[in-house]
Amino acid sequence: MFITKDRIGAFLFLVFSCAYGVYAWQIPLLPTEQGIAVSASTLPKIYAVVGVVVSLLALAGSFLQQVARPQGGSGALALGRTVLLLVLMVLYALMLDPFGFLLATELFLLAGYLLMGEYRPKVLFWASAPVVVVFWLIMTRLLGIYLAPGTLWS
């Protein structure tokens, strides 16, 4: 079958990324930002390019796996996981203010990995804790972005 849910999702993400890229390249720069390497439009442009590349890879992977993947299947399971991941994202947004970035993100990643079927404790730890800490260090120390520690602790 030519049209599948994977291909529709990847195509919609490709369209979204292209539209996002069009708007990202139209972000006006302040006169003081004209000569600098990193400006207000740098990160949106990177996001747009990464989105296009990821969606094209997803489309290509969908076509390459068509032969290897058995027909029929686990559509209800995939839909259930998708809905649970969306609920998890909403809970993550609600947890950010009281728990702070570090704890909320760690809990979000652990719950997401468990939901996707990863149960090995070493993998759960090494795939979440170092990622959260390194990302927090980049955001706070390198980029100087303030991430609130959470109102629960103060």
From TrEMBL:
Alphabetized UniProt keyword annotations: Membrane, Transmembrane, Transmembrane helix
Transmembrane annotation, as ranges: 48-64, 76-93, 99-116, 123-148
Pfam families in alphabetical order: TctB (PF07331)
InterPro entries reported for this sequence: DUF1468 (IPR009936)
Keyword Transmembrane belongs to the record: yes
Signal peptide extent: none
Occurrences of domain DUF1468 (ranges): 8-147
Name of this chain's protein: Tricarboxylic transport membrane protein
Lineage: Bacteria, Pseudomonadati, Pseudomonadota, Gammaproteobacteria, Oceanospirillales
